[in-house]
Design a protein that fits this description.
1 helix; alpha+beta; 2 domains
């Protein structure tokens, strides 16, 4: 019993220090601003794209749709789209205040996945780029642009480059028309 009391006496001050540090770190980490993105103007730069949209483009059947929402306390913008023929996808965009840049992630129900590691958004124009591999393993740079044409119209384009951005090959151009409420 005497050994147990001696051990507790020697450990107790160390335990108190560790618990104090842990609790103070936990408080500062978890007691963050409850709406950091909603109040950050940089995080809100894609708000012009929020809403329900009809999508048209070359070869389009006119049945393509998109719903763009703010999620996770307005920290990310999520697009859920459908071409009206069974091809569906989700695109997620978020602003990182730490490095003052945007990131994007695209995935669809056909197994296509793209990460856009460099994004810039300002004045109704968004541009995201990111690397991928082509069908023969070659390096490809992808660029997506989302441009506000008017309060009720936006354009999305996707280009690819196999020479690290020196030249671009258009993949598609889509026009978004806001659905009436």
């Amino acid at each position: 019993m005497k050994q147990a009391c001696t051990l507790i006496t020697h450990v107790n001050p160390l335990l108190i220090v560790v618990l104090t540090i842990t609790l103070s770190m936990g408080t500062s980490v978890f007691a963050a601003d409850t709406a950091p993105c909603a109040a950050n103007a940089d995080s809100r730069q894609l708000d012009y794209w929020l809403g329900d949209w009809s999508i048209s483009g070359p070869g389009s059947t006119g049945m393509a749709t998109s719903t763009v929402t703010a999620s996770l306390d307005k920290c990310v913008v999520v697009e859920q789209w459908s071409d009206g023929k069974g091809h569906n996808g989700e695109n997620i965009f978020g602003y990182s205040p730490n490095d003052k840049g945007w990131r994007g992630f695209f995935a669809d129900n056909r197994g296509h996945v793209h990460a856009f590691v460099d994004g810039k958004v300002s004045s109704g124009t968004a541009e995201f780029t990111g690397p991928s591999r082509g069908p023969n393993g070659e390096s490809v740079l992808n660029r997506i642009r989302i441009v506000r044409l008017s309060p009720d119209k936006a354009e999305q384009t996707w280009d690819k480059s196999t020479d690290n951005g020196a030249t671009w090959i258009p993949q598609f151009r889509l026009e978004y028309t806001r659905k009436s409420s």
